[in-house]
Amino acid sequence: MTTPSFPGLPQTDQVLSGRRVLALGPALGQLAAGPLAGAVVETAGLERMIGVSGADADLILIDADAWGAPALAAAVQALTLCPSPPPVLLMGAHLPTAVVRNLLRLERSDVLDAPFAPEHLAMAIAALLAQKPAQPAAPPQPQDVARCWAVIGAVGGSGATTLAIEIANQLCGRQAKEKSVCLIDLNLVDGSASAYLGANPMLRPAELAAAADKLDPSMLQAFVTPVTKQLDLLAAARDPSAFDAAPREAILRMLEVACESYDWVILDMPRHRRPWTLEALGGCDEMLVVSELTVPALLAARSLSDEIDRDLGGGQKPKIVLNRLASRMFGPAPSMAEAERALQRKAEAGVSSDWEAAAASVNLGGPIATHRPKSKIVKDVQALVDKLATEAEQRTVKAA
Q: 16-54, pLDDT tens digit by residue?
């Protein structure tokens, strides 16, 4: 950036007197003798933007021409994640689109094309400093907060998608209003929730990524497949590149908007960790790890639960659900008690095996409760949902 001269510059001493200005870019140090007169100026590199808040600086000036676009975009994006960041003025002859888009996510920001007149710089600084940070929104009341449950299989083929569908269907039976439950299949590459429900997947990861910045409840409906009056589905068609097409920010924004739009959100999680997995799980009220009754599956369930518990660092803990419990008294499958010994913990619930009912449901399309309402699976899932929902209501009452 070419630093302008400052003859006849409007006085900003009163505005900047004692203010702390963080100047990112070597050329900006020269501004201390002109429009930044009276301010306490600190020159630094982009790494200074990590974790910076309004308590550290009153204004950030960035020379866009001093840094490569990828590094600058990443630094500005990091700033958007900081609580109460200071206002930012980006200046330069070359303002990369990605950088400007990230900048516009900040509450207080502006851009100034170089070369610019000195009075324009002074006015931009004064305007930014005059803006007051918005007051934080009042926290939603407990009854307005969507409850979010995640279902994740310990191994492939454990029946996690089937249980996620049955849980979502049972929750619909507890709701009076329409469009109250949303099932989100986050297995973007090869999810099967839409096939199990006989529904047409409408979520397009590339379009979601392009719309993430402006995604709101009404726009989310463009990606939703209505299943029943109460149940909506967010699912993508099979696509090996889907995870690459939808970045972390787009997935998390979709989950955020879904939780604003529905009373209940059920996540059918991919078994393998993605960049957004821990953040998605961290926002859930319940995490259900589904395991078969085989030794490898039980060991995988124990390991996965331990990993989630460790990496989330406390709070809500994963709960293990044992699927396909055999009704016979003798056989090679472990009993519930034997399974819990392998898990080294109590299981939250067990779901009976009913292959015929599960197969009929998949072939006909829809929840098992629709086609085989007397199945033991339906009864066991209902008991699980009743237990978890009652616990959630008790926590809500205590929080209120």
A: 778 898 989 888 888 877 778 788 889 888 888 877 888
- The CATH superfamily of 13-130 is Response regulator (3.40.50.2300)
Who contacts 120 (Cβ-Cβ below 8 Å, separation ≥6)? 112
pTM of the model: 0.65
Question: Domain 142-399 belongs to what topology?
Answer: Rossmann fold (3.40.50)
Gyration radius of the chain over CA positions? 27
Could you tell me where in the chain the CATH 3.40.50.300 domains are found? Answer: 142-399
Query: Which tokens hold the place of 349?
Result: 């619930």
- Rounded CA-CA distance 83/367 in Å is 43
Contact predicate 227/233, CB 8 Å: yes
Other CB atoms within a 10 A radius of the CB of residue 75 amount to 20
Q: What is the pLDDT of residues 189-227, one digit of tens each?
A: 999 999 999 999 999 999 999 988 889 998 999 999 999
